[in-house]
Design a protein that fits this description.
By secondary structure, the chain is an alpha+beta fold. The chain has one helix at residues 31-44, and strands at 3-9, 15-18, 26-28, 48-53, 59-65.
Length: 76
């Protein structure tokens, strides 16, 4: 199983990349930078899911990173 990361806003108005129960993996100025870094971390760890939160803290998107197992991609 791969790893998962969350892109979340922080109290300073910047963006963090976090994992479940871990300290932040990255701290960036923009959400786009945080998303790119989260995808890089997940890819290097063998794939998984990046969950992107908006400034309001609500989930706004999820992205499966190769070689992850995207449940929406059913072969056949």
């Amino acid at each position: 199983m791969g790893t998962n990361r969350n892109v979340v806003p922080n109290s300073s108005g910047r963006w963090d990349v976090t994992g479940a129960g871990e300290r932040r993996s990255a701290h960036t100025d923009t959400q786009a930078e945080a998303i790119a870094r989260a995808k890089e971390i997940v890819h290097n760890a063998g794939g998984g899911e990046v969950t992107i939160h908006g400034r309001d803290g609500q989930i706004r998107a999820k992205d499966t990173v190769d070689p992850g197992n995207d449940p929406r991609n059913i072969p056949g």
